[in-house]
Structures are given as structure tokens and as C-alpha cells.
């Protein structure tokens, strides 16, 4: 399965707008457009928290291979997937089956209550972390299928290319914040990130008749997220002040990039970590959904969650507090501890 998409969506009537930004100037160190591009990235993160990134460095052939291997993995017998089971928030690697996760903004108690009333997220996933992290090896499939080696090679290559893209974007944000463009380098050197393959299986239309979601309303936890969608779509971003939702429709050749909670904390809330959810695109309100059959088709996506390295302390950046900017809004927090706390509430 390869990702495809529609043309760019028309402007939303909502106050929230998601811009399309070319990364090309940031891939050339001598480009005179580096600073304007960096400022455009920061502006998007300050207003909507989301953007479409085009002219990026991820080869289309590699992305197609990632989606193909992902679809093949989720089509394996359940016993093979269960043998690679996700175990702990500290590891955050391996397979999570249907009903294991409930993403939410709430506490562990609130998430547990939501499970009872709304059910769990209608998806399964596979997490891949940094190779070589002591005590937390990746759960690679081995000896299960002829594609195992290709799966591992493809995902490792993709992980590293996304890691580099994260570093490029963080360097640009430093530039836009009037910091040295190397400011974030020590914070993102290891690449303590998570590559997540996602499969939202076919689901009965009746399941969504009462407004149920593919994935509940939540923010992401790290610095930024790189999202690769298939043609099905379904991602929605909450408009300012909770005034409705904006569809983030798939756009060919782009990556959806959004800011996460740790970047918001770093920036003293100058940057928005915007709430978002995944709906069933065909289950819109009003009229015929235009799709035959009793079930909606599957949806696949790939999310690369970028984080500050786990040992890094996150506190308000220079130039984001004091005087008219106000006080620091958050106590400093260690990246890895914060991420484990958030993951613990959702599993």
C-alpha cells in the first residue's frame, strides 16, 4: 500500500488555518531564504500548531515501502503480532493490539473512566525506538515471515531519515527564536524518538452512529510529530477556543507536522500543542456517506514522534519569559520522565 492524497484542501471557515511550507531552503545551508522559512515554521506552530511540509528529504520510494511493509505486518496472524507485544511505557516498543490504548488529555483515572463509557481507540499499532538503547531492544519480527529482514531494514532507514528531519526543523526553530541554530543539537543528538505504524481496521458503520472516534482528542507529548497519512484521512484539529474542528486532509507529497507538549513547555506556551483526534471520514454528519457496504475501509498512517533526548531537562527557553512575556509557566522536567508519565495514563 502506498500513500496517495488529494489536492490541498480549501481554506477552512474556522479561524484555524494550516499552512503549506517548503523545507527546501533549510536543506541548503547557504540559502538566503533560511530565516524566512524558519520564521514561517515558528509562526505556524504559534498559531495553529500544525503545518504541511513539502519539498522534504524523505524519498517517495522509501515512504511507499514503509506503508507496504506496515500493511503486510498488520495482516500477519494475530499470534505473530502478539509475540512482539508492547510491554512498558519505559520501553515503548512493540505491538499494541486492539483496545489496548486510549489516548486522552486526562489523568490515569479519567482515562480509565473514558474506557468504560466510550471504549478504547479503534486501532492497532507497532512502536519502534532508537536502536542500541540499553535494556530496551526493539521488538523486530524474526523468523516469522520472508519479509522480516526487509521490514527491519526499511524501518531503520526511515527512522534515521526522520531523525535527521527532526534535527533540521529544530535548528530552524532555534534560528527563528533568535538562538544559535545549533542550540537544540545537544538535545536531539541521540534520537530518542518513536516510529509508530498505525492500522485502523475496517469497522462497522453502526459503530460510529453515536459519534465514536477512531482515536480520542489528545495532544502529542514530545517536541514535534511527523505524520504520514494514506488517502483515507480522518485527522482533525481542534480550532481555537474549542470552536469546532478542522480536517487535515491528505495532501500529496507532504508531511503533516505538529508541535507537541514538550515544545510548548520549552517555548513557555509561545508554541501551541494543539488538540487533535482521528474520526471516520465517511461518518460525517448529515446525508448519505456515499460508501457502499456495512463497513468503512481500513486506514493506515505512520507517525514519527520526535522527542528531546530522554536525559534532557526541559525548561523555558531564553527570550520566552520575563518582562512583558510574563513568568515561567512550568517547572523544568526531564524529557524521558515526562513521556513515561503520559504514556502510563493511556495504556
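Sequence proposed for the structure above (347 residues):
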Amino acid at each position: 500500500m502506498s500513500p496517495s492524497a488529494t489536492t490541498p484542501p480549501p481554506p477552512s471557515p474556522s479561524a484555524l488555518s494550516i499552512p503549506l511550507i517548503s523545507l527546501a531552503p533549510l536543506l541548503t545551508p547557504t540559502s538566503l531564504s533560511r530565516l524566512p522559512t524558519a520564521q514561517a515554521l515558528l509562526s505556524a506552530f504559534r498559531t495553529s500548531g500544525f503545518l504541511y511540509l513539502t519539498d522534504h528529504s524523505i524519498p517517495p520510494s522509501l515512504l511507499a515501502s514503509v506503508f507496504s511493509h506496515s500493511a503486510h505486518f498488520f495482516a500477519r496472524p494475530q499470534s505473530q503480532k502478539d509475540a512482539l507485544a508492547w510491554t512498558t511505557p519505559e520501553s515503548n516498543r512493540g505491538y499494541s493490539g486492539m483496545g489496548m490504548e486510549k489516548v486522552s488529555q486526562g489523568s490515569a483515572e479519567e482515562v480509565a473512566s473514558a474506557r468504560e463509557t466510550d471504549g478504547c481507540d479503534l486501532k492497532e499499532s507497532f512502536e519502534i525506538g532508537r536502536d542500541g538503547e540499553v535494556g530496551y531492544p526493539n521488538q523486530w519480527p524474526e523468523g516469522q515471515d520472508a519479509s522480516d529482514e526487509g521490514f527491519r531494514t526499511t524501518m531503520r532507514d526511515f527512522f534515521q531519515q526522520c531523525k535527521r528531519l527532526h534535527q533540521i526543523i529544530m535548528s530552524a526553530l532555534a534560528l527563528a527564536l533568535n538562538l544559535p541554530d545549533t542550540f537544540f543539537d545537544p538535545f536531539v543528538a541521540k534520537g530518542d524518538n518513536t516510529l509508530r505504524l498505525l492500522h485502523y481496521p475496517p469497522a462497522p458503520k453502526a459503530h460510529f452512529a453515536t459519534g465514536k472516534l477512531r482515536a480520542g482528542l489528545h495532544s502529542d507529548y514530545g517536541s514535534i510529530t511527523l505524520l504520514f497519512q494514506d488517502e483515507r484521512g480522518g485527522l482533525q484539529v481542534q480550532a481555537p477556543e474549542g470552536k469546532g474542528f478542522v480536517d487535515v486532509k491528505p495532501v500529496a507529497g507532504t508531511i503533516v507536522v505538529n508541535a507537541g507538549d514538550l515544545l510548548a513547555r520549552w517555548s513557555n506556551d509561545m508554541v501551541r500543542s494543539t488538540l487533535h483526534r482521528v474520526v471516520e471520514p465517511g461518518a460525517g454528519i448529515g446525508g448519505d456517506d456515499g460508501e457502499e457496504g456495512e463497513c468503512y475501509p481500513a486506514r493506515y498512517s505512520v507517525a514519527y514522534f520526535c522527542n528531546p533526548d530522554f536525559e534532557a531537562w526541559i525548561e523555558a527557553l531564553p527570550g520566552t519569559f520575563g518582562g512583558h512575556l510574563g513568568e515561567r509557566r512550568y517547572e523544568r522536567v526531564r524529557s524521558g520522565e515526562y513521556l513515561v508519565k503520559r504514556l502510563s495514563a493511556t495504556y
